[in-house]
Design goal:
Elements: E1 13-18, H1 26-40, E2 43-47, H2 51-55, E3 61-64, E4 92-93, E5 99-100, H3 103-113, E6 117-122, H4 124-137, E7 141-145, H5 161-182, E8 185-190, H6 197-205, E9 210-212, H7 220-232, E10 238-243, E11 255-257, E12 263-265, H8 268-280, E13 284-288, H9 300-318, E14 324-329, E15 332-337, H10 353-360
Parallel strand pairs: 1-2, 1-6, 6-7, 7-14, 8-10, 8-13, 9-10
Antiparallel strand pairs: 2-3, 4-5, 11-12, 14-15
The structure holds 6-O-phosphono-beta-D-fructofuranose.
Length: 368
Amino acid sequence: MPAARTDPPPKRTIGLLTSGGDCAGLNAVIRAVVARAQSYGWTVRGIHQGTRGLMRRPVEFTTLDPARAGTDILRLGGTILGTTNTGNPFAFPMPDGRKVDRSAEVIEGVRLMEVDAVVGIGGDGSFAILRRLARQGDIPLVGIPKTIDNDVGATERSVGYDTAVMVATEALDRLTPTAASHARVMVLEVMGRDAGHIALAAGIAGGADVILIPEIPYRIEAVAAHIEALRRNGRNFALVVVAEAVPDRTGERVRRQQASGAFTYGGIGEIVAHAIANLTGAETRVTVLGHVQRGSQPTWNDRLVAQAFGVHAVDLIAAGRFDRMVAWQNRRVVDVPLADIIDRPQTVEPDSPLVLTARGLGICLGED
Ligand code: F6P
């Protein structure tokens, strides 16, 4: 029997935007969306600076083809489209300090671009905004998860996480010889927002002695006792990894308000180092890794996940399936309703395999 012929999907134009903090692997997603769209004979319009580009008139976008967004860009960190994590259109910060609802302008911007669907590459915060816009403006939307924090629900991987862990692990590799040479306790503060995924994974991979994450309450005295026990056993140095959202002794997270009004974490490493020095008499030094974790060339793993996600997202559009996010589950690329992941961040479960691994290795998590 001859194989059934299926009609090609109708010609479409896709709007593509990156939203929230950048990370390594975004350009690999862009390249994959462009390549897959090309295979259908479709057009991709890359929107500049996330929803900000949609507020500008004329709307700021670039038509992307494989010559502009081919294999060259898949190695590059950052996003060729630009992004924003401070421009929530429902409460847009104006120069005079007011917050204004500019969602109608963004929706109008999508209409002016004449696209049939939008692919948004973001974290759960971005998806909450994009989904609200999509519902309000009747915009067919597909999401692709990215964030170094790896806290998007329903997916084991988000683009950018692997690279951030690689950078943090490498930092521990570089701190080890200097720590040993000077007999110091080295404290490495890593990003991750409210999730300890980067700290936990990099800490295990990089041979940390202590890992503090926001999901597991710690006592600094337990950390000090562990470092003293290491010393008694002949180790002259120690590596301590602290996730940025770990609270201080009073239970407060160390945050700073930026010019945009946004709060960012940073500074707990210094507090932990100071306390360790007081309790143990050890010489301590602090490295705050910061945005270095976002800026590297993507690892092979991030490039792979990014491109698998990009292809699947375009296939969802071809199948007319919207309001969904692509996800990685059990070695497969799948898709889930966007509604399922919004406001449900995936932080470290206190009995997760990596927590058990850390405990099994004798790594101190600050517990008694
Ligand atoms: O969500 C990604 C992230 O890098 C977090 O790990 C960090 O807390 C935050 O963004 C930093 O934001 P910004 O780029 O605004 O300093």
